[in-house]
Write a structure and sequence with these properties.
The protein has 329 residues and is of the alpha/beta class. It has a single domain, classed as TIM Barrel (Alpha-Beta Barrel). It is built from 10 helices and 11 strands. Strands 7-6-5-4-1-11 form a 6-stranded parallel sheet. A 3-stranded parallel sheet has the order 8-9-10. It starts with 6 loop residues before the first helix and ends in a 5-residue tail after the last helix. This is Biotin synthase. InterPro entries: Aldolase_TIM, rSAM, rSAM_sf. Its cofactor is [4Fe-4S] cluster.
Length: 329
């Protein structure tokens, strides 16, 4: 018995292979596909093929959480949220930061970017000192990216002058509902990043089963509108005290389908250099992603103070996952 395919989906995928990105309504249609359907499998395959032709090589990146504390942004998906965090305030000592940086830089695997992560309210001068320390250790070719709260264009330009090359900044799903930060604040910082000349790293996150295809499509397409340097997908990680825990989690297969839609939606974006999947996922690497992150220090998706002893992957485990997915260094 022949298996019938949805001709509208086939048309979207055919046009994607010709370099035409799907519209917003078509992205919703793709996200509505049953995760294990033939059409979804074909979508992942087309997205994977396009990504491998476009990116040619994998990217292995690292992140160090250098500061954490009870945070007034109170994001319901973050282990630093002041209403339920179990963390005491912490700033990484300079010698410990250098130790973590060397571990990434000297892992024997090619580190393409190193991220410094801090909570929404962060010590700006502490960050500048950390940037100077890290820049002395990593190679000039390694990109240095900040993952911090909202900041001004003046600060963005100063960070660039100090050695930062990019910023990870996201308008999260249900921003202002599950967080105490306004959408306008997040967009303003994205514009500051772009106006300063820093590379803008973006992500559709943190995805839960309660998020509609329309919500997810709109989050994805913000990256297209502002022309991000890197796009990504991240599923929400639920932990003990999170008020969102009862909503459950999406599967890796669902996340892979979101990755595939990102890869197709971003076909016509000339700024895009890579697509990441968080946390590291072999399924995502077969659906359009070419980038994974290893992590150490604090992590908003972990309840351990040192995430390398918890959820955080190592450079070696990320490299192995990329190689298992057919990406060659």
């Amino acid at each position: 018995m022949a298996i019938q395919c949805d001709t509208q989906i086939l048309s979207i995928l055919d046009r994607a292979q010709q370099g035409k990105a799907p519209s917003r309504d078509e992205c919703v249609q793709l996200l509505d596909l049953a995760d294990s359907s033939l059409e979804a499998a074909m979508m992942r395959g087309v997205a994977d093929s396009i990504a491998r032709q476009r990116f040619h090589a994998p990217m292995l990146q690292g992140q160090i959480g250098i500061e954490f504390k009870p945070c007034s942004a109170d994001c319901q998906f973050c282990s630093f949220a002041e209403s339920f965090t179990q963390f005491d305030p912490f700033k990484m000592a300079p010698e410990k930061l250098r130790e973590h940086t060397k571990a990434f830089a000297e892992s024997g695997k090619p580190l393409t970017a190193l991220f410094l992560m801090m909570p929404h309210e962060f010590d700006y001068e502490f960050l500048l000192d950390a940037v100077r320390d890290v820049r002395k250790i990593i190679s000039p070719e390694c990109r240095l990216v900040v993952n911090i709260g909202d900041f001004t264009e003046t600060q963005a330009k100063e960070l660039k002058e100090t050695g930062v090359t990019g910023a990870y900044h996201v308008l999260r799903l249900q921003e202002g509902v599950c967080t105490k930060i306004s959408r306008e604040e997040r967009i303003a910082t994205i514009e500051n990043v772009k106006n300063s000349g820093l590379d803008w790293y973006y992500c559709c996150e943190p995805i839960g089963p309660e998020h509609s295809s329309e919500e997810i499509a709109d989050q994805i397409l913000l990256g297209r509108e502002y022309e991000c340097y890197q796009h990504a997908a991240m599923r929400r990680v639920n932990f003990g005290h999170s008020p969102l825990k009862a909503n459950g989690s999406i599967s890796e297969l669902r996340m892979a389908n979101v990755v595939a839609v990102i890869a197709l939606a971003m076909i016509e974006n000339p700024e895009l250099t890579s697509i990441a999947v968080h946390e590291p996922s072999g399924a995502g690497l077969l659906a359009g992603a070419n980038t994974l992150y290893a992590e150490s220090g604090g992590n908003p998706r972990d309840t351990k103070e040192e995430t390398s002893k918890g959820r955080g992957h190592t450079m070696q485990s990320c490299a192995k996952m990329l190689e298992e997915a057919g990406w060659s260094f």
